[in-house]
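Quick one:
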Amino acid sequence: MNWVFQPVCLSLAPLALLTATPALAAAPVIHEITNSPVLETWLAQAGTIETVLLFETESMAVRVYRSGSSLFMNLYNKATDVVELRGAPTQLVPSTRDQTVYQAGGEAERFARINVLGETELEIIAANGSVVLKEPGFNTVVGVSSGSTDFRGNNFAPGTPAIVLSAEAARLRSAPRLGSTILSTAPRRAIVEVIDRGGNPNDGFIWYQVIYEGTTGWVRGDLLQPT
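Output:
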């Protein structure tokens, strides 16, 4: 099954990080590279947007998202706990290799790449052409096409309430992957607000970012159904 290349490189289905507007609702997200999670706000959201590509490198967290017909990029520096790039206009650029490349400008050029094998990379090039940073990525999440998909779980677009279908309470996790920190739970038949969608190639699930009783977290797609 080609979880990464089909949803991202062919259909370019949208997904989301921080909105391009200043009115951001901070969504607490836990960084889990160490056993001492650090509170992050780089996954904050306001309104419904959809992530195209989300991954981490050793020093940065990268998110490319679509709002309407436009692409944007956010970069979060994990060492300094600073969002270095917020809602930067981004474009899909041609590539001679089997990869999809997203470019955001500014004082430096930022390139977020994903290839047909699902391997990701962040490269930052200064105005003088020197390479400031070039790091491979991990913990990748990709866009999910509407309709048929290889990812497990109910597939529906964000922006609609959903009902919890799990036999017990659904866990709201800090990141769209199994094993990430549990932030809260939503009981069976609870209604949650769905604000984002993404597919995790590692565990094979669709994940939805939801808001329930003031907490923002990620829930597996097989535990939710649109109302």
